[in-house]
Amino acid sequence: MDPRKRIEKVEHDRRDAGPARHHTWYRGPHTNRAPKQPAMIAPSSVAEHVLKGWAPEAPAIDRQTRITAFGSCFAANISTWLGKRNYRVSARDPDAQGAYVVSIGEGMVNSFVIRQQFEWAWEGRTFDQPLWHGYDASEFGYDESVRRATRRLFDETDVFILTFGLSEVWYDAPTGEVFWRTIPKDAHDPERHRFRVSSVEENRDNIAAIVRLIRAHRPGAKVIMTLSPIPLIATFRDNSCITSNAVSKAVLRVAIDETMRAERGAGDVFYWPSYEIVTDVFRSPYKADRRHLPAPVLDFVMTQFEHCWCVDEGARPPLDRAWVLALSAAGILPRRIGRFVQKGALDRIEAWAGKDLDEDPEVNEALQQLLHDFVEVEAARRAA
Fold it and tell me: What is the crossing angle of helices 241-262 and 200-217, to 10°?
């Protein structure tokens, strides 16, 4: 038989066999299939296909919960959103502004420097070299008043949201200590200031040490870890930035996952999959710079966080509205639909629900149904 015909026959027999062809394979007690695109159109799709296994049993944040978010730049987005929503974030606490985790908390981009802040604040750990610098390369010293302010802040925090950004690090060779980012150009010493890619084991150990410190000094506090979806702007390796970014994120994601597997059932350590929501749910989630997120995409990530983590006090933003806006901003829906949503032009949205929105018939049908449902629910909200 011609090889092509044989392949076609095997494929035909496989399709005809249907579900029964799987009966000989043991698939374990937990089999969660990757969803096809039509299943990722409904507003509930992220909760069903991304948050499964990572959501808390019940929302744990209310208006009195004290929240400290720091780490990579994505931490600032979290603080800004929750602050605008009138949650108690450290970024808005007048008494906390002296702490570095507030004044430059989005600049602590690796797990080493996040660990340093906890060890410095709670255990008085000292460093022999100037490791911490601001965006303008100014030195951030180890001032005792700042340390006490940081400790006081940590002592009062109920939920720590720690955002890890990258695994590429610059370090001081004689001591092994890691810098916040790189070294000011006029202070760079090639004999002692080195670059490397940190390992999964190192990052896992840093995260485990952070969890131990929080449990020792702030028992009962919850820890929510996130991986920033913002990619590297540049790599210090001698290969492309795109491939280096894949490695940098993978190292951190594995370190977080190993921590979560070790902590399963503990009840105080959680993972929030902002990385997966941005990079795997949306087709084109970034602006033209390929780094920053359009506001609607970011707003959806945080709206989903609020629906998952924050107690419903009757004022949470509608998830379906944030979802339609995000799909429009990411190009899954026509961008003009986002403008119609913002203008409240329900008749224009309903008109688009009757048009072809995707070349795949099943995806097209799901998108049309999404818009029909949104118009119906939005109209009911207005009438209420």
Answer: 40
Cα–Cα distance for residue pair 279/231, rounded to 1 Å: 10
* 3-state helix vs strand vs coil in the chain, percent to 5: 50, 10, 40
**Is 285's pLDDT higher than 60?**
yes
pLDDT digits (tens, 9 = 90+) for 187-203: 899 999 999 999 999 99
Type and span of the H or E element at 12: helix 3-17
> What SS3 class is residue 141?
coil
Classified as helix, coil or strand, 98 is coil
**Residue-averaged pLDDT of the chain:** 92
Per-residue pLDDT, 75: 86
What whole-number distance in Å separates Cα of residue 79 and Cα of residue 150? 17
- Taking the C-alpha atoms of residue 132 and residue 118, their distance in angstroms, rounded to an integer, is 14
Of the listed ranges 34-48, 178-192, 327-341, 344-358, the one predicted with least confidence? 178-192
DSSP state, residue 94: G
